Amino acid sequence: MTAVQPHPAEPSPTRDALEVGTTATTVARGRSRVPWRFLAGRAGFYLFTLWAAITINFFLPRMMKGDAVDQYLSRNRNVSPEAADALRSLLGLDTDKSLLQQYVDYWGLLLRGDLGVSLLHGLRPVTEVISQALPWTVGLVGFATVVSFAIGTIGGAVVGWRRGSRLDGLIPLTTFLSTIPYFWLGLLAIALFSVTLGWFPIGKAYGVGMTPEWSAEFVGQVIHHGTLPAATIVLASLGGWMLGMRNMMLTVLDEDYVMVAQAKGMPNRRVLWRYAARNAVLPQIQSFALSIGFIVGGTIVMEMVFSYPGVGKLLLDATNAKDYALMQGVFLVITLSVLVANVLADVAYAFLDPRTRQTEA
Predict the structure, then answer these.
(1) How many domains would you assign to the chain?
(2) pLDDT digits over 190-238, tens only?
């Protein structure tokens, strides 16, 4: 007796089961939908974090003893009491308002883009002071961090792929360099390459007598002065990136999908970069985002050792002088940079890992 074959147009029970109420169907249908709930949750989290950071930024400096005028008077004994009172009135330090009212007024000024004036820099607007120091830090520390991350991640992937080879010797070497205190590494670099060999200048961002301008001579001076501190930053941070990537590669190489890709006869280069390294780099993304965010804060030790005009040294000077407005402005810029970097990390993580997009949907 011949079995009756189902008509091709008729839905089969198996296909109906897959089309209705299964996890595979849910994922397939969810791929095209925008994960609004996830986006709203992340936006709420970052907004709350921003509010908390700004609130701490307001109250923390005011918990310190003294104020900017007291520090200014300790350095300038010839200031009259009337001038000191005028300075306090200008900076809002003589107000009879409560901290809560000052906090509300601070938010009002902040929403208008008014960060106040800096007593340490001759009553110049805080936005102007930060805008002049920020490019130096981002240009030097940002470039060095990106280079260190790229070299460490690529090098760690290759070392992990060729585990057991002579390349494993790079891990203890770079890790040893990372354990050296940065100020000591910077002083050694200055003593060897600046004092002994004379290849690079001792410090500063450009030569004495140079005027900042977009000219070949000035750009050459900036590159020449920034090479040594950038190289020391790369050497000091290279070990962490390489070790982290190498360890993740060792974990990923034991996964089934890597073995299946190799069993199918795929080229080793494709298996390395398209399968193993792409998944091993995911934990590095969040760390890199935090590093990018804290670039704005600068490396205070580096800027002190090399006398480099950046945001880190600016923050240190503002803290010592109790310049509230400048401290708050620098902290605000650092907070915003960290939050933006984390948002970009979330986007990059979802782009590199399709499972994240499916789960969020």
Answers:
(1) 1
(2) 999 988 888 888 878 887 777 777 888 888 888 888 899 889 888 888 8
* Dist CA 298 CA 304 (whole Å): 11
Provide the pLDDT for residue 297.
Answer: 58
The domain containing residue 232 runs over which residues? 124-360
Segment 133-152 shows an average pLDDT of: 87
Distance CA 139, CA 229 (A): 12
The string of DSSP codes covering 121-156 is: TTTEEHHHHHHHHHHHHIIIIIHHHHHHHHHHHHHH
Asked, for residue 41, whether it belongs to a domain, the answer is: no
Whether 71 is covered by a domain: the verdict is no
**Contact of 66 with 322, CB cutoff 8 Å:** yes
Residue 220 sits in a domain whose CATH number is 1.10.3720.10
Of 123 and 23, the structure prediction assigns the larger pLDDT to 123
166 is a domain residue: yes
pTM of the model: 0.71
Residue 168's nearest CA partner among 177, 155, 181, 178 is: 155
Residue 246 lies inside a defined structural domain of this protein? yes
The most confident of 87-101, 183-197, 300-314, by mean pLDDT: 183-197
The sign of the dihedral angle between the CA atoms of 156, 160, 162, 168 is positive
Token look-up 């106040």 returns 116
